[in-house]
Amino acid sequence: RGPLERFARWLFGIVWRAFAISAILSAVNLPLVLAWQNVSAPIGVVLGPPLVVLTSVALIAGFLLLLVAPVAWFLAWPLARLTEWSLSACEWLVRLGDRVPGGHFY
Asked: Which of 5, 7, 36, 76 fits a disulfide with 1 by CB distance 3.0 to 4.6 angstroms?
């Protein structure tokens, strides 16, 4: 196998595991959430892994922004934009998921 195929298999394995963990956690938590809040959001299985990646990027960029901003504003600006874009992408994904028919129900 070539390096591109190995990389594709490795990446597919990571993505598959992320969505499998999301599905398992959603299935385990579903009865508890339904009993307590009377709402279910199956779209969370699909949105969970991308949102985890985006929020992780925003968190790391935000902490780096806090460290760099007092020293050099010109280095802080790209980190601020990265944090903003990551959080904006999260908001866009959640709004998109909210419009999916059957994405959540009471």
From this structure: 5
Who contacts 94 (Cβ-Cβ below 8 Å, separation ≥6)?
47, 51
Query: What pLDDT score does 21 carry?
Result: 94
Which among 90, 75, 91, 82 is positioned nearest to 61, based on CA atoms? 82
Tokens 């938590």 correspond to: 29
From first CA to last CA, the distance across the chain in angstroms is: 49
> In this structure, what DSSP letter does residue 40 have?
B
- The alpha carbon of residue 60 and the mean position of all alpha carbons in its chain are separated, in whole angstroms, by 13
pLDDT band at 14 (very low <50, low <70, confident <90, very high): very high
**Cα separation of 79 and 101, whole Å?**
36
- Whether residue 39 contacts residue 104, with contact meaning beta carbons closer than 8 Å, is answered with yes
CA distance 95 to 89: 10
Share of the chain above pLDDT 70, in %: 100
